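Tutorial handout. Part one gives the primary structure; part two gives the three-dimensional structure as tokens.
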Amino acid sequence: MIRPGISHICVLLIIAALVVSGCPKRILTSNEAHHTETGFRNVYLSEKPGFGAFLKWRWERVWKNVPSPDLYQFPIASGDPQFLQENREKTTLTWIGHATVLLQMGGRNILTDPHFSLRASPVQWAGPKRVVEPGLSFADLPPIDIVLISHDHYDSLDEETVKKLRERPGGQLTTFYVPLGLKSWLQARGVSRAVEMDWWQRQKDGPLEITAVPVQHWSKRSLFSRNKSLWAGWVVRSDDFSFFFCGDSGYTPHFKEIGRRLGPFDLAAIPIGAYEPRWFMKNHHINPEESVMVHKDVRSKRSVAIHWGTFILTDEPLDEPPQRLRRAMKEQGLGPQDFVVLQHGETIIE
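Part two.
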């Protein structure tokens, strides 16, 4: 049971840190439906949950029996870092944890929403703490060519990891692809190669084509920066392989459009966790049943479950999402290899 005093203190400390956190400076205006005069919005969603809704959720959570991180024992797969460091031919995906995957395709090494820090928080002394270590250590990463960032929340855009990637040998050659509004944030932290993209924009990167695609979420890195930067999913295509990274999203008609315009996909990384309570999370986080719907909408041949089992961010038990996913797959007629749940650090070879 979380003690009310400690819970309230941690929340207040994190809010205080958010006030002084840097936020994106670039604000664009456009005739696009998702642009506003001050930032961005969702096109299929008019609901704007305020700070009062957040406080209501936090108050309700005080009295819930949220399990301690120490109660979970997720095994880490026995990987082969040397193979990953040397591989430039085979297409692989390694789930490192949460929304972080290492994708190897077209001879390139790609990281999604890289997070290797202890906490998903603006500070490392409070906030959601890792339940399990990264499945592939930072030191064991191969040289990273491309980083895909879905949005600016602390579990997806981790400042310490960004700095460490920049400081690695060859790190200045890593290209970060980010939604509109985040390039200046990266540049302020020494990242020289940052490409900022709007929904449906495409960019060639050697043998790969990278496309930012619409999802339904939001952004906020400080108290006064809500929706000042955009959020996005990403599609990566080569001549013979296509990959979809969902990022964070509620269930939305965007997915059918992505499938129609850019699908089918050989592989997709789709979130299955962080969905309770539904009254608060539904518009911005899919649950496992909706994850199966996304898999079908985008026309993915095979999907991998992400965004679960690493940080306690919401109210469902941390080990519940895979169970619900398996039930939903059976109900929707999917086979066990159509949508897979990996161990932290597990690699699949396509």
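Part three, for discussion. The mean pLDDT is 89. Residues 4-20 form the longest helix (17 residues).
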